Amino acid sequence: MTIGVAGHMSIVRSFRRNLNRKTVAVVLSGQGLEYVRSLDETVLSKVVSFPDYYRENSPVIRELDDQEILDQSREVEAQLGVSSVNPYHYYDRDLRKNGDWNHVIRRHLLNLRFVAKLLVDARYYFVRGENVTHIGCLIQQAAHGLGHRYIRPSNARLPNRLEFGSRILGPNCGMEAAYDRIRSGATDDTTKKAVEQADQWLASFLDNPSQPSWALRNSRTRLHLSKRVYQYAQIGLQRATRPLRQSRDARRFDREARMTGFPGANFVNQMLLPDLRRMLHLRRSIFRRAVSMEGDFVYMPLQYSPEISTLVYGYRYEDQMNLVRTLAAYLPTGCRLLVKDHMSMMGRRPYAFYKELESFYNVQVVSPSVSTFELLNKCRAVATNTGTPGWEGFVMGKPVLVFGDVFYRYFPNVLGLEFSQDMGEKIRSYLDNFKADETVIRNCVASYFASTYGCTMVDIGEDTPPDKVEEQADLFAEACRWAVESLEDDFPIDWEH
User: pTM for this structure?
Assistant: First the structure.
């Protein structure tokens, strides 16, 4: 598994404790290497370090001419079963910032070789992966073809529910199989429990729909000055003590490999400037006026960006301005598009972004402080790339237009879209003929519970309370055991170690 945040260390220890498995730790950054050094050999079988590989091999690769670089890249691609490195380049927030051809093609080759070293002629009980880096995406793409069981945990759409990347894994671990069992009236314990959970959750949600606590906690629609000063102080303290927690060598590598910027740059770009811009935005008329919710309108919530939901799952439509522009052009005559920004994005986009949105005659910007559930109740339909409101709209019996690769795209009564000349006719026909089906909604929610597991994931050790870290890590290990057992028929393993 890749180790890059503090919570991964708890997961590694839990794998040893609950699965009796040592972990092959893959480290992509200097920070990750620091984390691994704090783990003992009883939980690790070995460490595969990209920082060490980078230093050893990049001087040699830099000496190759461009044609040699490309020829070798294609050879390794064939070995891994990868058709191109380009899609995964753009999934990587750090790598895609660099437009230098000479640098990028050499980095691509370095990454390809590193992944080949990891996966070719190797055997793992399973690969636990993430795909927000170029290397992580290459691992995911190559693992299946090389015979590795790859488990991709995803952030679930309900608090403390963990979903897995089931569409890649196989038919026995996913919502399609669970939905078919539930629809056919299966009475096994897993199905019965999932139906009970679905009925309870549906009744609770429809009675009092509410946003997850993490969404409210990260909201930027109001400025809490004391809270922000406290956060600034925490960041300053972390910066001041970093030399005590991280070696100079690790910091140097992260800057050299362009995984971090100049000291203080992230603070200015991600905290200070957005806070200043937010204070100005909230005083602008575009966010202070009331937008009419009478008549036909499609509600389109924008998403936090960049993150995995847009970079990977919704990659083709990551440009949200273009998505709004195109959807607005294909809506039925007389239907407006009401656009509301993500609560965590206020101040992160320039005001010109919102002015451009409103330059389209049938698009109106709604203040992020307006309740998403008020919009869902009154809208003709909800449209999204991969956002949570698509799931909430489906549960509330609303038509849902979805562009990205998100689990509810494949539910009955949801319209999965791609940009095409006949998109307008598809939307019109779908809206005219849509009928909510309570049985379908209930079965889909039940299939969600039947194919997810009760635990959290990436926030272990970060947002998780300290006294719950080990408990959540143990639950995660059990979730991985559950996923592996679900995959046994599709990807059997006949070896012990």
Answer: 0.85
